[in-house]
């Protein structure tokens, strides 16, 4: 009973400390609420659309004008202007009025009617990779569509029906169906992974503030006992669980991100991740001697940790030492695991490597934290 009483007392002390510290409360809970609405806002369109392009039409034929109309009808493109002079198109790009250009040569329709292959030049503004990709792919699709239509007309003249002509041109049909990121958007790709890192970093900052305050004031509230450690660990773990419930249960639904693939596996991963992050936070917090130290040390680490997780940057492109060291961070396994279970419906067996990594880190952080916890007397 004494052990249980000590654990419950530590649980209550932890929640009183969290609710009584405005900065810690902001980091533990309020920051997640603010982040969930304002961070995805710039990506709410999901995909880049209506990128302005300039068209240099030196042919001015029926086919070239059709190419211009189809460019304007493409969902990713918008015709900023049509001219016959490349210098004018270049001026539009320099002024920021266009992010790409398509040059239709003067012999475009003549070559097509003669059965020859004309050359259409397309170019994008490489300073903006996302816009450049949409421009180059979109213009290539427009030119390819016109080319396919011309080829079908030629085949149609030599075949009994249009369907046979289409089958001759494309004997194997391809239908592209996105399975998980159904809108193929940037927000659905990046936000579900980043929120896992957010839960880790805001928690570590918050617990660093609490432990730094106690150290600087000389009033560590817990007894140096295992039961007190267990109570504090359970309370801090619940903080991470509540944040996970907010993001996975409400935010993903509200923002309409891919979700609900395997709720049971996601729940198991959440519980393990929560204990792992809480154990890491307690261990790190015991080293802080001032309230501000956690902010100074941890704020700048978020971006490198995101790259190490293999989400925004392929893990195979990392130096070999970093490919191993990145597994020392809970976010590495958690990001990969949550994306697999929550978005793709993976089973626990399929994320066994991530679960094993989190379990090993949890045991290590608890052992390290408990060892330092016992050596710190109650003030």
* N-end to C-end Cα span: 24 Å
Order of helices and strands: HHEHEHEHEHHHHHHHHHH
Spatial extent as radius of gyration: 29 Å
Percent in strands: 5-15%
Query: How would the global form be characterised?
Result: elongated
Q: Low-confidence segments, ≥5 residues, pLDDT <50?
A: none
Q: How many beta-strand segments?
A: 4
Average pLDDT, rounded to a whole number, is 86
Largest sheet: 4 strands, mixed
Helix content: 55-70%
Strands side by side in the biggest sheet: 2-1-3-4
Which secondary-structure class do the elements indicate?
A: alpha/beta
**What is the domain total for the residues?**
2
Helix segment count?
Answer: 15
Provide a quick synopsis of the model.
By secondary structure, this protein is an alpha/beta fold. The protein has helices at 2-20, 22-38, 62-73, 86-94, 108-113, 129-158, 162-169, 186-217, 226-254, 263-285, 293-298, 302-308, 320-325, 330-343, 352-374; strands at 51-57, 77-83, 100-104, 121-124. The protein has a four-stranded mixed sheet, sandwiched between helices.
Describe the model.
The chain is α/β, with parallel strands linked by helices and 379 residues long. 36% of the residues are buried. The protein is elongated, with a radius of gyration of 29 Å. It has 2 domains: 2-43 and 183-374, no CATH class; 51-169, abc type-2 transporter like fold, CATH 3.40.1710.10. It is 64% helix and 6% strand. It has a 4-stranded mixed beta sheet, with helices on both faces. The model has no long low-confidence stretch (mean pLDDT 86).
């Amino acid at each position: 009973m004494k052990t249980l009483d000590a654990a419950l007392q530590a649980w209550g002390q932890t929640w009183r400390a969290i609710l009584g510290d405005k900065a810690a409360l902001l980091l533990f809970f309020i920051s997640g609420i603010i982040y969930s609405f304002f961070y995805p806002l710039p990506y709410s369109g999901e995909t880049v659309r209506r990128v302005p392009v300039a068209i240099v039409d030196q042919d001015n034929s029926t086919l070239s004008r059709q190419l211009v109309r189809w460019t304007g009808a493409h969902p990713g493109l918008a015709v900023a202007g049509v001219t016959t002079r490349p210098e004018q198109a270049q001026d539009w790009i320099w002024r920021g009025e266009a992010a790409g250009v398509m040059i239709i040569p003067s012999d475009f329709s003549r070559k097509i009617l003669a059965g020859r292959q004309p050359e259409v030049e397309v170019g994008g503004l490489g300073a903006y990779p996302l816009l450049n990709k949409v421009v180059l792919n979109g213009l290539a699709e427009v030119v390819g569509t016109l080319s396919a239509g011309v080829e079908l007309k030629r085949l149609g003249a030599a075949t009994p029906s249009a369907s046979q002509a289409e089958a001759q041109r494309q004997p194997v049909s391809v239908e592209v169906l996105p399975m998980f990121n159904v809108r193929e958007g940037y927000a659905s790709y990046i936000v579900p992974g980043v929120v896992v890192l957010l839960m880790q970093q805001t928690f570590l900052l918050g617990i660093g503030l609490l432990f730094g305050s106690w150290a600087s004031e000389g009033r560590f509230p817990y007894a140096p006992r295992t039961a007190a450690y267990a109570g504090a660990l359970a309370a801090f773990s619940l903080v991470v669980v509540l944040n996970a419930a907010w993001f996975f249960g409400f935010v993903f639904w509200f923002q309409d991100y891919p979700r609900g693939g395997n709720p049971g596996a996601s729940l198991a991963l959440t519980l393990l991740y929560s204990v792992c992050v809480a154990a890491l936070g307690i261990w790190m917090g015991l080293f802080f001697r001032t309230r501000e130290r956690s902010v100074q040390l941890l704020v700048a680490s978020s971006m490198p940790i995101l790259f190490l997780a293999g989400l925004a940057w392929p893990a195979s492109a990392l130096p070999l030492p970093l490919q191993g060291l990145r597994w020392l961070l809970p976010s590495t396994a958690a990001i990969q695991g949550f994306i697999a279970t929550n978005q793709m419906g993976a089973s626990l067996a399929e994320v066994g490597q991530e679960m094993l990594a989190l379990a090993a880190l949890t045991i290590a952080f608890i052992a390290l934290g408990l060892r330092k916890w016992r050596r710190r007397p109650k003030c």
